Amino acid sequence: MTTVAITGVSGFIGAAVARRYADAGATVRGLDTRLPDAHNPLTPDPDPRVDYLVGDVTDLPSLRRLVEGADIVVHTAAIVAESGDWHDFDRVNAQAPRWAALAARSAGARSFVHLSSVMVHGFDFADVCAEDSPLDHAANPYCATKIRAEHLLRDLSVAGEFSVHIVRPGDVYGPYSTPWIVRPVQHMRDKTFLYVAPSVINHVYIDNLVDAIETVVAAGDAMAGVPVIASDGVATPSRDFYGYYADLLGMGFAPTVPGWLAEPVVGALAAVLPEGLRRRLDLNRESIRYLRRRARYSNARLLSLGWEPRVGLHEGRERTAAWLRQVGWLPPT
Hints:
Blueprint: E1 3-7, H1 12-23, E2 27-32, E3 50-54, H2 60-67, E4 72-75, H3 86-106, E5 111-115, E6 128-129, H4 141-153, E7 163-169, E8 171-173, H5 178-189, E9 195-197, E10 200-201, E11 203-205, H6 206-219, E12 227-230, E13 236-237, H7 238-248, E14 256-258, H8 259-272, H9 275-281, H10 285-291, E15 296-297, H11 300-303, H12 313-326
Parallel strand pairs: 1-2, 1-4, 2-3, 4-5, 5-7, 6-15, 7-12, 8-11, 9-14
Antiparallel strand pairs: 10-13
Helix pairs in contact: 1-6, 2-3, 3-4, 8-10
């Protein structure tokens, strides 16, 4: 029986990976700083088939306990934020993946999957961004440490024994997605939502991302050390992507702000407003930089491995809306 170990198992992506492998009959063990909260409807429920360990990905004994006897290790843990302390970002997002991979290799695992990000390409790139497009730290701690993690993992594969796989997800949405569903819909409910134009969402439904993880693991040595972008391959205008949920909420209007204006205005407001109000309004200049993207990420490399986005945008939005109704955030049909 296959044993799968997952960091960040209580989070949106980690929980989905755990559920998929448990459904397939694998033994699943997960590490996180907290146990899943069964009382919070906006976070994944605990899965009785998963062996949960409480610990830190920067703690070597915790990592060794996690990976003991594992065949596959999937590293999803990260600080996912637009800004913050650079030292914390480096420790968690850059150093911890290497420590986890080394622990996995020492424990005899055959595959290690690192969840990187399309943000290694920064905020500004050509009309179509592929894996060999330039990397850009963009003077941003998230972008910079995701790049550094890939560099630190580059030489850890051992042919025929241990493969390190690097997956760069796009904008991962679906039930429990905090950045792409929960936060935006909360702003819609609070009447604080706005569109930045022009902007696009390079979405990938959560099930499609988990399919991508399984695909690169199955590829073995052939994809060791080769980064793979996981995206549905469509750059959907933000107004179309979020307008679906806005319509369901009965929002007749949301302001549209030109990107060139939104960035300096948000930066100025963030500098003068009280912290509590700034947090409630989610004012962050870096998030505006992200939203100003206008180009598409290519998923051609992943398609060449036989993967395809099985859940299209129409179905993905319907599944997400059903969950939002379940938690009481959308009116019943």
